[in-house]
Specification:
β8 and β9 form a beta hairpin. Strands 3-2-4-1-7-11-10 form a 7-stranded mixed β-sheet, sandwiched between helices. A two-stranded antiparallel ribbon has the order 5-6. Strands 8-9 form a two-stranded antiparallel sheet. The longest helix has 16 residues. By secondary structure, the protein is α/β, with parallel strands linked by helices.
Length: 366
């Protein structure tokens, strides 16, 4: 839905942005002055989100922040991550191995570059203090999926996801930060990054409860020391095959009307005029009588409109003859259990996000 915003409200929102303008990088650093843990929620596979994330990473040590937690590495690989980012030389092969162990379906350069950025940071640091990257994710048993129907088999999925527990993610964050007096940036998909907002379990037109995620578990202990900052991501609709613009397209509409120099911006959602923006077409609204952006997240980052989103880049030779059999065994895509190398490479060369957004109704075809 493209929301029509009353002129007086539009003026108020535009004035708020210009009066309180901060770049996304400066916005994150500003929020660290009053908070210890910032959950930065991304839209998966988007190149610009990761580039912003890396720019923020490079700024953190100068502001006393030396801990980064990421969804896109497993806890099991922490010794390898430490070896990589604390090493004298950057080992690209080891970085690929860490990503491959995380997921054979996630071989994208910009995600792997997180380790290189951390290594570069550590090369410049003097003294004993080092920049840490800590993997959060579990070790799933994707090899137990052998046919498409297995995804709908509760018994099989229970075994596949036996180690999945975001309480463990949260406990690891709390143990290394709040309990030791450290601040940290936590980078993940937005659905894991919610702190106060709780995701509704809404089925057959009925609210069945709420799902607590990593950020929620952290908030239960850290309270407002932890906040959620959302990037500009597609929102879910009641139709699982359709995405919609956040808050009925209000943010997109506002950004089209303000001077270009203010469109690359981070701003408060909670306790600001933006927090009053509502949604009528997103499934996020279920379970909340007065759902609005201020309930959804604490802060918001806007970089570019959806039609300019770009896919991340496949890592060259991520799947190769030496690891092809293991890729077949551990991929989430059961259609690739017996795939040849070229079929894996084709799977990584996904369609553009623009085409996908058109298909899902998020944007209109240009």
């Amino acid at each position: 839905m493209n929301k029509s915003i009353p002129d007086h409200q539009l003026h108020h929102l535009k004035q708020y942005l210009t009066d309180n303008y901060r770049t996304p990088e400066n916005y994150i650093l500003h929020k660290f002055k009053s908070h210890d843990l910032i959950f930065l929620g991304e839209s998966h596979y988007t190149k610009h989100n990761l580039r912003l994330f890396h720019r923020i990473m490079r700024l953190l040590p100068a502001h006393g922040i030396f801990y980064l937690f990421t969804e896109f590495a497993r806890r099991e690989e922490q010794p390898l991550i430490d070896k990589l980012i604390f090493g004298r030389n950057y080992d690209e092969a080891l970085a690929k191995e860490i990503m491959f162990r995380f997921s054979v379906d996630w071989g994208f350069q910009e995600y792997m570059d997180t380790f290189k950025v951390a290594w570069e940071i550590n090369q410049k640091l003097t003294g004993d203090q080092k920049f840490h990257v800590i993997g959060l994710n579990d070790s799933h048993r994707w090899y137990l999926l052998q046919k498409p129907e297995d995804w709908r088999n509760p018994e099989i999925m229970k075994k596949v996801m036996a180690d999945y527990d975001e309480q463990i993610w949260a406990d690891l964050i709390l143990r290394e930060t709040i309990m030791k007096g450290n601040k940290a940036l936590i980078y993940s998909g937005l659905n894991h990054a919610f702190t106060e907002y709780r995701f509704p379990l809404y089925r057959n037109n009925r609210l069945e409860g709420y799902v607590d995620k990593m950020g929620n578990f952290v908030f239960q202990k850290a309270q407002k020391r932890a906040i959620t900052v959302s990037t500009h991501v597609p929102w879910l609709s009641d139709n699982p095959d359709i995405w919609v613009q956040p808050v009925d397209g209000a943010i997109d509409a506002i950004m089209r009307t303000i001077p270009e120099e203010y469109r690359y911006v981070g701003f408060d959602a909670k306790n600001s005029p933006f927090g009053e923006l509502t949604s009528t077409d997103s499934s996020f609204r279920h379970g909340y009588d007065n759902f609005n952006l201020g309930i959804f997240c604490d802060g918001y980052i806007y970089e570019i409109p959806f039609e300019k989103f770009e896919m991340v880049s496949p890592i060259p030779e991520f799947i190769n003859e030496s690891n092809l059999n293991e890729a077949r065994r551990t991929t989430r895509d059961v259609g690739l259990r017996h795939a040849i190398l070229e079929e894996f490479q084709k799977a990584f060369a996904q369609q553009s996000l623009h085409d996908l957004f058109v298909q899902t109704g998020l944007i209109k075809s240009s």
